[in-house]
Design a protein that fits this description.
This is Heat shock protein C. By secondary structure, this protein is mainly beta. It is about 10% helix and about 35% strand. The chain has a 7-stranded mixed β-sheet with strand order 3-4-10-9-8-7-11. It has a two-stranded antiparallel sheet with strand order 1-2. A two-stranded antiparallel sheet has the order 5-6.
Length: about 190
């Protein structure tokens, strides 16, 4: 696994429940490249993931096991855990998706098969997109099936959407250090 010069958890430790070990290696940091047109240089992002990609307190799918990232501790949600295995592939489709900007973070939605129910549902991926140490970053703060609010079935998204290429150009113009506290997750030493 490559190590990047970023201030976030880059390798998630597995967890064990009822004698079964669950790997979180699919949430290890990695690079993703987006190419707008042939002959142009690809845009490179370093991607990291947050605790909310596989945890949520008080759901029917939560198990009685908390996972800590050094900032907070939450119950593991098996529905989110199973869906998190698809996150890398979803992020690779970001070049063709519309990114919606909110204060502090961005999101996009895709229709995804829910391994728990077998239904295809809208899946919302919330991310902080910023620059750190001259590197473009995507930190996935949360990822979940959108059942309420914008992007859920029958609820249109009212925000203006942009391409990842526009977001990248705008992000490169911003000064370093403008990102939410959620990206500062790290295990206790």
């Amino acid at each position: 696994m490559p190590a990047f010069h970023v201030d976030s958890i880059q390798h998630w430790q597995p967890f064990e429940h009822d004698g079964v070990s669950y790997d979180l290696g699919h949430l290890d940091s990695h690079e993703v490249f987006f190419k707008k047109e042939e002959g142009k240089e690809a845009i490179r992002f370093v991607v990291t993931y947050g605790l909310h990609c596989f945890t949520k307190d008080d759901t029917e799918q939560s198990i009685p096991l908390k996972y800590a990232d050094g900032r907070e501790s939450r119950f593991i949600c098996m529905e989110r855990y199973e869906a998190s295995k698809q996150l890398r592939g979803m992020l690779e489709k970001l070049a063709g998706a519309t990114v919606y900007l909110t204060q502090g973070e961005s999101f996009f939605t895709l229709d995804v098969m829910n391994n728990e129910s077998g239904d295809v549902e809208p899946f919302k991926i919330c991310m902080a997109i910023f620059r750190e140490n001259r590197v473009l970053r995507i930190h996935v703060t949360s990822a979940f099936f959108a059942r309420l609010g914008e992007g859920s079935p029958g609820v249109p998204i009212k925000k203006k959407g942009f391409s990842i290429f526009k977001v990248a150009v705008d992000t490169q113009k911003k000064p370093n250090g403008q990102f939410p506290k959620e990206i500062r997750n790290r295990y206790k030493k």
